[in-house]
Specification:
182 residues, alpha/beta, Rossmann fold, two-stranded antiparallel ribbon, 6 helices, 6 strands, 4 iron, 4 sulfur cluster binding, iron-sulfur, NADH_UbQ_OxRdtase-like_20kDa, NADH_UQ_OxRdtase_20Kd_su, cell membrane
Length: 182
């Protein structure tokens, strides 16, 4: 089910009959993170309806360890921004992002969240990547539930393969600083 490489190794002399696991801590933590993500849905329009069908029994996002939605930013790992984001709503989205603990990932769902969609007006934010960093984009107007699941699986791959130390790297800190996040 997972690509993590966990090997049972023969025990040293004197400890016969007791195998032990030999793997890197990064792959073990990555596997645990990838299979226990708690999404926070931030849905403002029609993409939220498609997300509801993703949660239903036919598509069942619970198969991926995400059946527990978190409506508290402090308990969520994945911010799923779905739908049109007005410029007045942008500070709220950023505050929700900042309240999430590290590691955190962002999934931008639908044309409106990705690029403003058909609403090229003064009041609509032309993509949430202008205020917070986005990890995965799911295009479509509205995207099908299969596309949302595919985007979520890409987030799982990021979580599984990310080094524990990545969030402390100068490149990551520079990215956050470019968004005005410390």
């Amino acid at each position: 089910m997972s690509d993590a490489k966990i090997n049972i190794v023969e025990a040293p002399a004197g400890l016969e009959g007791q195998g032990f696991f030999a793997t890197s801590l990064d792959s073990l933590v990555g596997m645990a993170r990838a299979n226990s993500l708690w999404p926070l849905p931030f849905a403002t329009s029609c993409c939220g309806i498609e997300f509801m069908s993703t949660m239903a029994s036919h598509y069942d996002i619970g198969r991926f360890g995400a059946e527990r939605l978190s409506f508290s930013a402090r308990q969520a790992d994945v911010l799923m921004v779905m739908g049109t984001i007005a410029k007045k709503m942008a500070p709220v989205v950023k505050q929700v992002y900042l309240q999430m603990a590290e590691p955190r990932w962002v999934l931008s769902v639908g044309a409106c969240a990705c690029s403003g969609g058909i609403f090229d007006t003064y009041s609509v934010l032309q993509g949430i990547d202008r205020i917070i960093p986005v990890d995965v984009y799911v295009p479509g107007c509205p995207p099908r539930p299969e596309q949302i699941l595919d985007g979520f699986m890409q987030i799982q791959e990021l979580a599984k393969n990310e080094s524990i130390r990545r969030r402390n790297q100068p490149e990551y800190k520079a990215l956050l600083e470019s968004y005005g996040i410390e």
